Amino acid sequence: MDKFKRTLITTALPYANGPVHIGHLAGVYVPADIYARYLRLKGEDVLLIGGSDEHGVPIALKAKAEGVTPQDIVDRYHTLIKDSFEKFGMSFDVYGRTTSKTHCETASAFFKKLYEKGEFVEQTSEQYYDPEAKEFLADRYITGTCPHCGNERAYGDQCEACGTSLNATDLINPKSAISGAKPELRPTKHWYLPLDKHEPFLRKWILEEHKEWRSNVYGQCKSWIDMGLQPRAVSRDLSWGIPVPVEGAEGKVLYVWFDAPIGYISNTKDLRPNDWETWWKDPSTRMLHFIGKDNIVFHCIVFPAMLKAEGSFNLPDNVPANEFLNLEGDKISTSRNWAVWLHEYLEDFPGKQDVLRYVLTANAPETKDNDFTWKDFQARNNNELVSVFGNFVNRALVLNQKYYDGIVPESGEFTDYDKECLAEMKRLRKEIESRLDTFHFRDAQREAMNMARVGNKYLADCEPWKVIKTDPERVKTILFVAIQIAANLRIAFAPFLPFSADALGKMIGMPSDSFKWDDLGRIDLIVSGTKLEKPSLLFEKIEDEVIEAQLQRLRDTKEANKLNAWKPKDISKECSFDDFMKLDIRVGTVLECIKVPKADKLLQFKIDDGLGGRTIVSGIAKYYKPEDLVGKQVCFIANFPPRKLRGVMSEGMILSAEHPDGTLRVIGPTEAIEPGCSVG
Predict the structure, then answer these.
(1) What's the alpha-carbon Rg for the chain, to the nearest Å?
(2) 575 is in an annotated binding site
(3) 146 is in an annotated binding site
């Protein structure tokens, strides 16, 4: 880092067709924010660049489904995402968007420069065309049956059921998502970035010069390069996007993967119009991309190839990409609503931004996929934030308030144990730094929490509440030391838990502009005689019923997904009319209904069948209360032979239909009819 004067941090642009969820936060935004806050505390020149990705097929599809324009969609979600980030405490220097005038001009100029330098190749290939809508279809506009798992709703680029990447031509029975028509293959011309041309450079730059990159990033890049890179299209036949700025490209736009990373540049331009080139072209600027693993190839291979072809831009120094975060053992899915959405979390847990930041960092999927569970969320809050960090701060400040009216006492001579605990602050600072500098945020936060553990142990060992009775002078030193540890916690947690660190700072008189990272480890941060504010709790316990409400929401989502995925069973093999006429289906009125003893599933009916009555036993006890069926009319098969069930002779079968959720509904006439009437 010594060779760099400043650091440019970019975060993957969230797609503006839905809200942000915890997978995005854990994979990209929380670690990026931690690192930016850390560098700022160190006094370094840093920019944190974010923004919304607003072009591409899914946005156009969503707009078509809702009967609105794509601009309506991106305006809605850009606003929601930006507002959620602000409330969550993301410290972006700019949060822009790829529909801005600056971005459209920047992306167009970037394409045109590469075009004029001859960095693209033109190719004509056959792609699917909708003869009814009269337009070429992007992969997401084509649906069909996945050849791998049989999912009938697979897209032309990926099957979301099995996760397999596809080409549109792989689909069985493809159809247009616009009109439903069967698409036709027709020739169309596009421009391609010849990644194969840049393969020698990429091989040397990544595989030889950046072996320090995370193993998951390095490994994925090596795999792609070793397979041999292929030209990649930079244009698409679409109406929503930035028009390709050359003659003969009518009806074509820049492919979203080409225009989106240029958004980092255009957002920097909007923020720093006079010196943006210093941040992108000066070799003394370090650039870092914080992304998820699904963006590794674009940020380590494709975007660097674009920058290299252009010729004047810096290349990223590191790409600390994370793997995926799962939710309750299942893959987070926007389409299945299987997620914890940031804007909903902020509504459900007001004032608890730091709890989510803490848990997501503690479970960060840094080199392998990890899992978020609500029970773990509760446990980490209650057992770590409340019982370790919050408990120490509260004990130290409450005791100081009780014994010294909130005024920091004069310290006497330090014992060896005092010196040992204070020395731990310096040692732990080095541990935190070494981990932050190498993007191990999970380990860094753990070391910060170890400071609080040192503080708790110090108070437990020294027992000032007992010593005050025999040696009040010693207690002054104990509480002086405890308050210095609290002050160190204020600095150590500032990158991780900004809201809580500020709240602690307010209580002990340490506003954010009163210290730097270099102050961490000092033992004189709060001077004797300082009047502290009355302490309040930094964290509060989260009760079981709060967590149960979140788990119930997920259970409801799972049930809704089952219903959405439901489709009727295939028609049974043919039945002749004569066979059907053998069934004697009648209408009857329920006179009595009781549960069959020792049978959880069975109800015993007394039916008025118009012929003197009959008893029927039916396995629907899970779905109805007996009293709710009395007086109802039902259809039943009257000519089944009697059969004994749990000691009760059943004289027929009540007809029911199975709901998509697996529950049963009895079948009956829509209006009252005489008992005994035949159905047919």
Answers:
(1) 33
(2) no
(3) yes
